[in-house]
Design brief:
Keywords: Membrane, Transmembrane, Transmembrane helix. The protein is α/β, with parallel strands linked by helices and 249 residues long. It is built from eight helices and six strands, in the order ββαααααβαβαββα.
Length: 249
């Protein structure tokens, strides 16, 4: 191996602490550089040891905290813990972010996504959602899904056709649409006013926990319209839900 700036005249080689030292007639000593690299490695190892120790200590502390929980509560299993976490999570969340609600209300009022799909855009038109409706119906039937929460439901134009078709074979199916634009919710409930199995409610999927008691969560073409923070909050809501089938599965 050629060393940088090494003179090619007379050289001598010695060995010190497993480090090969090459000196040329200009007295270039590369031992210092080797020692510097060794010190750097030693420093990195020390940092790694400190980090690992911190993780171990954190685990010990967490174990001590869990040991303080009464045994009768521990015997109830993970269901109790999940219930307590859900209650606390619900308490921490707000209901609807007014800025988000105003933004999407303005989108629909101004038809910024076009007139197709009731203002939800061409991707929500009956023509475009034909394959989606067929696939979703097949999934509901094959997986035995009896209830579904759709968030956000948007103008729900294609959902109307989907539900009418599904109720021909799934009489016990229950649907809940969650949408942040109140005018869309009011219009959808007016269309289904005589059908107790279908109900729409105003909600913010980033700020509210998912309604309990539903087998599945359905969400389509929604996350990309939100901020990164709201996307993270939405995913957390889905993860904390009691739905068996959700977009995170």
């Amino acid at each position: 191996m050629l060393l940088p700036n090494a003179m090619t005249t007379t050289t001598t080689t010695t060995t010190t602490d497993n480090v090969v030292v090459i000196k040329d007639n200009g007295s270039r000593d590369y031992l210092a550089a080797a020692r510097t690299r060794a010190n750097t490695c030693n420093g990195a190892v020390q940092v790694l040891v400190v980090v690992m120790t911190a993780f171990v200590l954190a685990g010990v502390v967490a174990g001590k905290i869990l040991d303080r929980i009464p045994s009768d509560l521990q015997d109830r299993g993970e269901d109790l813990q999940a219930t307590r976490m859900m209650r606390e999570y619900r308490r921490m969340l707000k209901q609807v972010n007014p800025q988000t609600q105003a933004a999407f209300t303005n989108v629909y009022a101004g038809r910024h996504w076009g007139h197709d799909g009731g203002g939800s855009g061409a991707g929500s038109s009956l023509h475009f959602t034909g394959p989606l409706r067929a696939l979703l119906k097949r999934l509901v039937e094959s997986l035995g899904i009896k209830s579904l929460v759709d968030m956000p439901s948007g103008a729900a134009t294609w959902q109307d056709v989907f539900l009418q078709d599904l109720f021909k074979t799934k009489l016990d199916f229950k649907y809940r649409g969650v949408e942040i634009v109140k005018s869309l919710v009011d219009a959808a409930n007016a269309r289904w006013i005589h059908e107790p199995r279908v109900f729409f409610t105003v909600g913010d999927m980033a700020e509210e926990p998912v309604l309990s008691g539903y087998d599945a969560i359905f969400s389509r073409d929604a996350l990309q319209h939100n901020t990164y923070l709201d996307i993270i909050k939405t995913l957390r809501n889905w993860a904390h839900s009691d739905a068996i089938i959700n977009p995170l599965c």
